[in-house]
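To illustrate the input format used throughout this study, we show a single complete record. The first block contains the structure-token representation of the backbone; no residue identities are included at this stage. The design step must infer an amino acid for every position from geometry alone.
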């Protein structure tokens, strides 16, 4: 994987100790061409405050010869898609990954969960929907894919969910519904490692295997196409 935009540093809390520099060094050693840092937004206990995300606009963007983007994994906090960072803060970043996490929004009905994703997609600073594979949140996948196309948002295939240590239920079963719909409606996906710390940066083996099993077309996998990926960002890469 050349591009990994879903990674967490020490600023995300929960025991992660690696800094942005340590992450960038590792990504460089693993020959990534682009690294994105997407720490947990404030609704996750122990994570960074809004001021951290605002300060990133002053942080160096080239480290160990590797371009680094700064984003946030924002939490969807209601069934209308409200987020836990305001748009002023999000505008300081390169991208936003919007995700559902049980501590921030308890799973609702299929309609409520789907509405929460679609509401988040309407926010111009939301670039990616993170791990739409959590079987604790039943989703109308066709509505999700249609909305991703309408609002020009990428759907993530999350490596961490698919690993044997994944904790989001049967993620593979969710992707087996989602991914054929992405093909039918020609909606691109982005693989994200969701590495907490440097250990899993760029990992994609389980995601790649699933995509191969489904004969998913390479041209819809944006990790391979930095130029196409650029048009999903409100900042200039
Ligand atoms: Zn997440
Ligand atoms: Zn994450």
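Output of the design step:
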């Amino acid at each position: 994987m050349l591009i990994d935009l879903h990674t967490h540093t020490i600023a995300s809390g929960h025991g992660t100790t690696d800094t942005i520099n340590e992450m960038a060094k590792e990504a460089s050693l693993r020959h990534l061409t682009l690294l994105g840092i997407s720490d947990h937004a404030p609704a996750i206990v122990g994570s960074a405050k809004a001021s951290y995300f605002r300060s990133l606009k002053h942080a160096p963007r080239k480290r160990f010869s590797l371009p680094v983007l700064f984003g946030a994994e924002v939490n969807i906090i209601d069934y209308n898609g409200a987020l836990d960072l305001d748009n002023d803060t999000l505008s300081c970043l390169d991208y936003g990954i919007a995700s559902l996490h049980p501590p921030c929004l308890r799973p609702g009905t299929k309609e409520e969960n789907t509405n929460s994703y679609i509401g988040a997609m309407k926010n111009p600073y939301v670039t990616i929907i993170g791990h739409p594979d959590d079987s604790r949140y039943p989703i109308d996948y066709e509505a999700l894919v249609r909305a991703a196309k309408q609002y020009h948002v990428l759907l993530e295939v999350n490596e961490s969910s698919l690993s044997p240590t994944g904790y989001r239920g049967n993620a593979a079963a969710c992707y087996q519904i989602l991914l054929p719909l992405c093909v039918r409606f020609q909606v691109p996906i982005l693989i994200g490692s969701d590495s907490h710390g440097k250990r899993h940066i760029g990992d994609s083996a389980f995601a790649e295997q699933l995509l191969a099993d489904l004969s998913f077309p390479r041209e819809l996998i944006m990790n391979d196409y930095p130029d196409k990926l650029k048009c999903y960002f409100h900042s200039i890469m």
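Structural context for interpreting the output: The longest strand covers residues 66-75. The chain has one domain: 3-230.
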